[in-house]
Write a structure and sequence with these properties.
Strand 21 and strand 22 form a beta hairpin. This protein is α+β, with helices and mostly antiparallel strands. It is built from 28 helices and 22 strands. Strands 4-3-7-17-18 form a five-stranded mixed beta sheet, covered by helices on one side. A five-stranded antiparallel beta sheet has the order 11-10-22-21-20, with helices on both faces. Strands 1-2 form a two-stranded antiparallel sheet. It is elongated, with a radius of gyration of 36 Å.
């Protein structure tokens, strides 16, 4: 038994075959193989084949979560993240069912049946040498993303699969199937700063994951095979083909009908791509201010101590902080649109006028001064800094600025490829006009819109809060408000237009006597305070400062939130000081808030990733002037938009040709109460407009980087031409959105107002015509 006898071909010699011996060899080999496999798995679990995650790491896999900047109306304005870690976490309930179905049908159809390793898929892959697909389950892919890496090298690439199996089995014991799906989709890099499905759906389609349709979900699931090869932004055809494959898989496994599959595969792929780099997207300048503020808050507010009794701090890049800001995304959009519409048009006119300027883009300065401007720009340039870091000599650096190179430069018609020397590029960028806009709610202190410049990628300087510029006549309301608050002057109170001289030694005047002049050259008769502010009569402001002195005006300005230095000199009555736009908006808002100053703020509250409150803002506020003085000052400024330099908000332009060329959107024809003030500085270097309605105060500044770059005449360089149109365009857009509830009402009038506002009654009561003895 068990023995067989075989004969040779010619039957000469028998051959004995013992089958039991081969059965024994088989079992020895099989048991040896199993032993080796088990031993390899044990080695892997012990970490001998490569580092393995600890229990704590499996319990809490490390994922850097970007901080989210969330607007007051619930929209995400942007994120703060480490390079390649722009991750916005989502939960399972935020995923649409068709996205999960697409994932299962394409990546792991037996996902809910296996325990991390698909034995059937592994056997298929092994017997077909991978020709019929791989065997990596979703759990294995998660294991690779979390703990192994996408590209193992050397010995690791041979042991990677074993380690994946071990980690996958551990993950399946630690987490539910739904949790594994969420972890995988939150971890995957969809490229272009889109880490995780939350960021990817927002960047590629400008949607939340739950709002993705089937086709869009299929595109993103298709990218799991390769986010570069099947990227819809850079390889559209590949992305469409892969999307259609995913849709076919969904139909194959019963998630779609054949008719649905055919229909979906024929639809075009429509992207709504929005890059989330720090210089792209909405509120770029504002987001940089938020990042700076939060970093300072983190340094001042440790979250506790570690086991070694050392202070620990929140991580702005990795803790998934949710920063709730005061900006309204709609108002921010309208502000940015208004800036783009007007500034592109204004720049076109400026460039046209510069064609006959031999010292362009500067006016009124010498060649030596121009050379000094360029040298200063070279000294502070990033190009010079990089070359110094590379060990280049100063001479090599200077020489490089005169060699032509290929570069991309900003233009209002889009980024332009050109060839020029770095020195010429400095002059090219000096010609651009810049702007700043800030809008806030006077009653709450909430900043609602913030535009720091025309393009953050090419112009980093924030003209809202970073720099100071000469404010011109926008400072005059502080002078008038001081006179009203101290002397109870009525807007009808009349003052001579005649020249006034303040001698050396009085009110900080030095060098020689100070005799200001009026822009229109009119010094005849008297004028009411309301008309004087509307017409921006310099001699009236000088007479007021002579009467009350600069110190009370400065004290009021400081109470109104002005932190920049103000010289104690009479000339401040004409706006010679350099102040921040953010300071001016906060100060003007006080008048609309019945004399109560509220410090403007950007951040309402901060929570951690789980929604636990970490910071809650309590606005700084203080009483500054009486309700009566605040209201009368508003009444004065209403005159600016009724009969003065701001009347262009309400009427047809007196110079139709100029407005047709330069001012976008005119006529504006506002009919509601508006308090405002224009400002134009010497040589038309700075143009301002401050505009107030009952629940919104907005300031706009326009000018060039260097004050020697400016329009030739006030017809184009005045605040009413440079800055006012941005305010008007912005407000028209805000008023067009009924959901914003921007007020068109009268300003709130205090009870028992003692200062007379009706000039006819005022003159009857006082029986005077002029205050010639002022």
């Amino acid at each position: 038994m068990g023995q067989s006898v075989f004969k040779t071909k010619n039957n000469r010699q028998p051959v004995n075959f013992d089958g039991r011996k081969y059965v024994r060899y088989f079992w020895i080999g099989f048991i040896s193989f199993l032993t080796i496999v088990v031993f390899l798995f044990l080695l892997a679990s012990w970490g001998a084949l490569g580092e393995m995650p600890t229990f704590e790491q499996l319990e809490n896999p490390k994922n850097d979560l970007a901080a989210q900047i969330i607007s007051s109306d619930g929209e995400q304005l942007g994120t703060i993240f480490k390079p390649n870690e722009n991750r916005t976490p989502i939960t399972y309930n935020e995923l649409p069912s068709h996205l999960i179905e697409a994932l299962i049908a394409t990546e792991d159809v037996r996902f809910y049946k296996h325990s991390g390793v698909d034995a059937r898929g592994t056997l298929r892959a092994f017997t077909s040498f991978g020709r019929r697909g791989g065997a990596s389950t979703i759990t294995q892919q998660l294991a690779r993303l979390l703990f192994i890496g996408l590209r193992s090298k050397n010995w690791d690439k041979y042991t990677q699969k074993i380690r994946e199996w071990v980690i996958a089995a551990r993950l399946e014991r630690q987490y539910t199937k739904n949790e594994i799906i969420v972890m995988y989709l939150n971890k995957y890099d969809f490229t272009r700063q889109a880490i995780g499905i939350g960021s990817a759906s927002r960047i590629y389609f400008n949607k939340k994951p739950k709002d993705l349709n089937i086709q869009e979900a299929a595109v993103l699931i298709g990218m799991l095979k390769s986010s570069t090869i099947y990227n819809p932004k850079t390889r559209l055809k590949n992305a469409v083909d892969r999307r259609n494959t995913v849709i076919s898989q969904m139909a194959k496994y019963g998630y779609l009908t054949v008719q649905e599959k055919d229909s979906l595969q024929k639809t075009p792929l429509i992207l709504n791509y929005r890059s989330e780099g720090y210089s792209e997207g909405s509120a770029t300048y504002f987001r940089r201010q938020v990042k700076k503020w939060v970093e300072e808050w983190i340094r001042s507010n440790p979250k506790g101590k570690n086991k070694e009794d050392q202070l620990e701090y929140h991580d702005i890049y990795g803790d998934g902080l949710k920063i709730h800001v005061t900006i309204d995304s709609r108002m921010q959009k309208y502000a940015e649109e208004a800036v783009t519409e007007h500034m592109s048009n204004l720049q076109k006119e400026f460039d046209k006028q510069e064609q006959n300027n031999s010292t362009s883009p500067f006016r009124g300065i010498s060649d030596q001064q121009i050379d000094n401007i360029v040298k200063k720009a070279i000294r502070t340039s990033s190009r010079r800094k990089k070359m110094l870091d590379l060990g280049k000599s100063e001479q090599e650096i200077q020489d490089s600025f005169d060699k032509k190179v290929e570069m991309k430069v900003f233009s209002w018609n889009g980024v332009r490829d050109t060839v020029m020397t770095p020195r010429d590029s400095i002059l090219y960028y000096k010609k651009f006009l810049h702007t700043g806009l800030m809008s806030m709610n006077p009653q709450t202190g909430e900043v609602k819109a913030w535009v720091g410049g025309v393009n953050h990628k090419y112009f980093k300087y924030d003209h809202v809060n970073q720099g100071t510029r000469q404010v011109g006549s926008t400072f005059k309301p502080f002078v008038y408000a001081t006179a009203i608050d101290q002397l109870k002057y009525s807007p009808c109170y009349k003052i001579p237009r005649a020249k006034v001289t303040i001698p050396v030694g009085k009110h900080g005047v030095s060098g020689k006597d100070w005799t200001p002049t009026n822009t229109d050259g009119n010094y005849i008769g008297s004028v009411s305070l309301k008309d004087a502010l509307a017409e921006s009569v310099n001699t009236v402001s000088a007479r007021l400062i002579d009467r009350i002195g600069p110190e009370p005006v400065i004290n009021l300005a400081k109470k109104l939130g002005i932190r920049s230095d103000i010289d104690t000199v009479a000339s401040i009555s004409l706006g010679t000081e350099n102040l921040k736009l953010s300071e001016m908006v906060g100060a003007y808002s006080t008048f609309a808030n019945e004399g109560i100053y509220i410090k403007p703020f950007m951040i309402s509250h901060i929570t951690d990733k789980n929604g636990i409150l970490l910071y809650d803002n309590f606005p700084e506020r203080r009483d500054v002037i009486s309700k009566e003085s605040a209201y009368v000052t508003l009444n004065l400024m209403e005159g600016v938009t009724q009969t003065g330099s701001g009347k262009r908000l309400r009427t047809e332009a007196s110079n139709q040709y100029l407005y047709k060329k330069v001012v976008t959107g005119h006529p504006y024809v506002f009919t509601n109460p508006i308090a405002g003030k224009t400002g134009t500085t010497q040589n038309q270097s700075d143009g301002w407009f401050m505009g107030i309605v009952p629940n919104l105060c907005t300031g706009v500044w326009v000018g060039a980087d260097n004050r020697a770059t400016h329009f030739k005449s006030t017809a184009y360089g005045a605040g009413s031409t440079m800055a006012l149109p941005i305010w008007a365009l912005y407000m028209k857009k805000c008023y067009g959105d009924d959901n914003l509830n921007i007020s068109k009402s009268e300003f709130k009038k205090p009870e028992n107002l003692s200062i007379e506002l009706d000039c006819e009654l005022y003159e009857k009561r006082n029986k005077v015509d002029d205050e010639l003895g002022f």
